[in-house]
Write a structure and sequence with these properties.
It is a single chain. With about 110 residues, the protein is α/β, with parallel strands linked by helices. The protein has one domain: Rossmann fold. The chain is about 35% helix and about 20% strand. It contains 4 helices and 5 strands. It has helices at about 15-30, 40-50, 70-75, 95-100; strands at about 10-15, 35, 55-60, 85-90, 105-109. A 5-stranded parallel β-sheet has the order 2-1-3-4-5, with helices on both faces. Helix 1 links the parallel strand 1 and strand 2. The protein is globular. It starts with 8 loop residues before the first strand and ends with a strand.
């Protein structure tokens, strides 16, 4: 495994490696460090342990154990993580109001 550049840490949450790889590759090439989580519970554990600058969270709403909005709400309710921006990764046309209500800062389509 290649050494990661010293830069801001960004966890990427997606249950599909085909989606994780491009996000990971782009972020690493632009100076970010990445961690991957394949499900919602793992994402919460990683974010609580690492307290990253931002989280990219799959919003296909089909994470194996909890959906992306559940993860967002749980992280938003935790004082240590409530200020961390959450960016939804989605192939779907998101409903901006629903994302904001769920605690997302923004989205990437």
């Amino acid at each position: 495994m290649k050494s990661q550049p010293p830069g801001p840490l960004v966890p990427i949450v997606d249950d599909n490696e085909r989606n994780l790889k491009p996000a990971r590759d782009v972020l690493r090439r632009t100076g970010f460090r990445t961690l991957e989580a394949a499900n919602g519970r793992e994402a919460i554990t990683v974010v609580l342990a690492q307290l990253p600058e931002v989280v990219l969270l799959d919003l296909d709403l089909r994470l194996p154990d909890m959906d992306g909005t559940d993860v967002s709400r749980e992280l938003g309710a935790e004082p240590r993580t409530s200020g961390i921006p959450l960016v939804a990764l989605t192939a779907l046309e998101p409903e901006a109001e629903r994302l904001r209500a769920a605690g997302f800062t923004d989205h990437i389509r």
